[in-house]
Amino acid sequence: MYYLFTALAVLFASCSNNDDTATAESVVVAFENPNLSFETTDASKEVNLVFSTAAPQSGTLTLTYTTENALYGDDADFITLPSGESGTITLDFEAGATGVSFTFNKLQDALEGTTKSVTFSIDSITLADAFANGNTDIVVSFTATAAAAGTFSPEVGGPNEPNQVYLDLSSLTETAVQRDSWDLAFYNGSEFRVKLNGSIFMAAAQLDATDIDAVQEADVEALKAQVAVGTFDAANTAYIDDVTGTVDGTAIAEISTTAEDNKVYLLNLGYKVGTATADQGAVALNGDSRGWMKVRILKGTDDYIVQYAALDATTHDEITIAKTDDATFNYFSFSTDALIDVAPATGKWDMVFTTFTNEIPGFGSYAYADFIAINNLDGVVAYEVDGSTIAFADFAASNVDSGSFTIDQRAIGSAWRNGGGPSSLPSIKEGVYYIVQDPDGNIYKVRFTALVSEGGERGHPALEFSLL
Questions:
Q1: Three-state secondary structure call for residue 15
Q2: What is the pLDDT of residues 89-100, one digit of tens each?
């Protein structure tokens, strides 16, 4: 307050010397603060305006306001006293007043990941020698809070399932990215790990070589048949990332500080997104093969040095990928020779609808459609509930069994749906739902309400959820 009045005093002195309209009786009006924020538990606050000197007579002060993601009304986001329903607020004051205020009632918090605010501005003052200066505006910000309930219909894209779709329950946000738009994901955590794009069924095999330019296609021709997904060979899990999602289980070994320990890898780049028309209830995931590459990854101070080339090349390209703080992985595309945006920022998503490289015990890696992976590396955990023990509608916070949570990214996986068969179409698994805890500790119950479109076309999932 001291600094505000000091500023007003300086302003008044300046106006008295240089502004013919200002007089000794001039009243400078300003908001007490330029910003006001609500905590989650706050429902009401006073917004104060102050005068540089006592009002010489009674009068009124009129405010206008603009909003960001907020609506006025008893059934909306906020109201004020006196009322601002008309778009303005009129505040009366008496002679001798040194300020005036109004009440701001917050009715709804902002959703996580969104900004909700109201900016009030001084519009007019009825005193002849009064004017606004200094804090002529105030921004009232709503606190972000988790969504209490909601629904999603992720834009997976139909039976070719072209998109990976990341969902954040608490903010009701959905992020879709074409699944063949990236190749490798570089971990930003304490370890130096590189993840394959399992949604397009990539695979990788370490070679006994450190000179990437010396490796030629003839050297790896016999290995190609093994380095693939869906060969029904139990041993081929060595060529894919650990299906549980642990960062310690990548097919590419942890990048070593010792350069000679970092070998060249043969990369099967998987498949382009399919374009064929699928039968009703079926999927057509894979298009043309994306071919093969060789890659060697070295460790810098806090970055990755990536060497890569076609199999028959005798020279290679190189890019340095620095670790960053705002994402769990940085995603790189060989097609564009650049980083691209894929998953949302660290902690800003809970699950992803995707195609997925999984394991069939005894038969090795296998391609799955309609798969849901949880964001385990950012702390998301989940478990399945049998609806015959307690109905979805009846499940409450008191029913949460924290000991059942699993960090395996396949906690939901493909278990939410029936795959169909020769005489049946794929379908939702009735009576099954999931309890999901997000990175902020919010716990949700989630059930899936659709797998196919009304016409029976695959790749049109839907879900609903409630905060516990």
A1: helix
A2: 999 999 999 999
